[in-house]
Amino acid sequence: MRRFIVIGQTATASGDFSLDDLPSSSGRLDILLRCLRSSLLISHGLRRDVVAYLVLEGGPLAPRVLRVDGAAAKFIRPDERALALLVKRALAAEPPLAGRGFLEVKPGLAVANGGLDCAVADLGGATPYVLEERAPDLRAAGIRGGDTAFFIGDQLGFAPATRAALADIGACPVSVGPVSLHSDDVVVLISNELDRHEADPGWNAE
Amino acid sequence: MRRFIVIGQTATASGDFSLDDLPSSSGRLDILLRCLRSSLLISHGLRRDVVAYLVLEGGPLAPRVLRVDGAAAKFIRPDERALALLVKRALAAEPPLAGRGFLEVKPGLAVANGGLDCAVADLGGATPYVLEERAPDLRAAGIRGGDTAFFIGDQLGFAPATRAALADIGACPVSVGPVSLHSDDVVVLISNELDRHEADPGWNAE
Questions:
Q1: Least CB-CB distance to B181: which of A43, A137, A185?
Q2: The whole model's pTM is what?
Q3: What is the DSSP secondary-structure string of B12-55?
Q4: Which residues of B touch A34 (CB under 8 A)?
Q5: Which residues between 90 and 129 in chain B have a beta carbon less than 8 angstroms from any beta carbon of chain A?
Q6: Is residue A191 predicted with pLDDT exceeding 80?
Q7: How many CB pairs under 8 A join A and B?
Q8: How far, in Å, CA of A110 to CA of A106, rounded?
Q9: B75 CB-contact burial (10 Å; exposed 0-12 / middle 13-18 / buried 19+)
Q10: Number of H helices, E strands in chain B
Q11: Is A41 on the interface with B (CB under 8 A)?
């Protein structure tokens, strides 16, 4: 199982954003939506072994966490507007009571009232990693698949309190390359590294 | 200089698609728009050493090629709707005469009336590669940066005539991993590989 937890410091936790002006009206939720695509979708299919968490720290209803489980989710489309509509409806659903964990609002789609703690409490025994620039190279980190969880920041990086919380749970810092990239691209590079570890050695033999 | 040429077999070459229903109304131009983001944009910036070509083979005005030059382009935003609007306006501009090559319609943004040939004629001395599943691994392909051009298919892969044309110019087949991915994710993996080759060896030393 692979888990991606993307933390949006300004991304809205309420569904009242405009589909026609997503970046401005949603506090850059668009960045997190693109992470849903890159974590869950492959060519003509859905990654069934992935769970994506969007930690939404912006707007009056924050913090909330949206969880999309590839094993149960249906009708996840790659285009940003469709993803925005999916999330808009999920966030508009009756919110669960705080402290009660995740409430499923559609198959594979769940919302929790709470912040990063909710996501962390949901990880089970997954080995946590945190994406940091100039940290040790993911390619050399010795990750061999299994149950992993990757924490990824947004356009602002991580808030100090988040960084401290991730250190507390022992999240291991890794990086994906020499250039500072969009969050969804970081997810692509992690997925590829895990795909390579899990593939048969002859994957590229014709 | 890095060049990415993404070939959309159904992607519309005319600007009359709907921003509210991009995948259906544009012949999956959305796939190619996402390649613009992933090829040209990094965290808080634009890759100045990248040129992206969208080969549009769908609709009544096809084929046409849209070229975006990172060295001159301005105001490239990451969200799909903004990219769609940019391309819609470029395609609505007065088309150049066929056979006359690229006509700049905005700084860094140019359109040619013609197909894959127009893109190929524009590559100069770049070394061509074609992305094919199960081809030799990009990581082992010995690419050391310089002037490169990567041809990438869409949700349908490549048409036989395209594959033949790319073989004719000696495009070297490479692959990025064991899983069949979206075109924009393929671009991310190529860019990362080139970034790594071009970076100082100590890029990840704190």
A1: A43
A2: 0.97
A3: ESSS---TTSHHHHTTSHHHHHHHHHHHHEETTEE-TTEEEEEE
A4: 78
A5: none
A6: yes
A7: 127
A8: 7
A9: exposed
A10: 6, 10
A11: yes
Q: Does B75 touch chain A (CB under 8 A)?
A: no
Q: What is the DSSP string of B120-161?
A: HHT-TTPEEEEE-TTSPBGGGS---SSSEEEEE-BTTB--HH
Give tens-digit pLDDT for A148-166.
Answer: 999 999 999 999 999 999 9
Residue A104: strand, helix, or coil: strand
Which residue from B37, B43, B78 is facing A180, i.e. has the nearest CB?
B43
CA atoms within 13 A on the CB side of A46: 16
Residue A124 exposed, middle or buried by CB count within 10 Å (0-12, 13-18, 19+): exposed
Of A19, A192, A199, the CB nearest to B189: A192
Q: How many CB atoms lie within 10 A of CB B161?
A: 10
Token code pair at residue A162: 């988040």
- Predicted ipTM? 0.97
Contacts for A118 with CB less than 8 Å, ≥ 6 apart: A65, A101, A102, A112
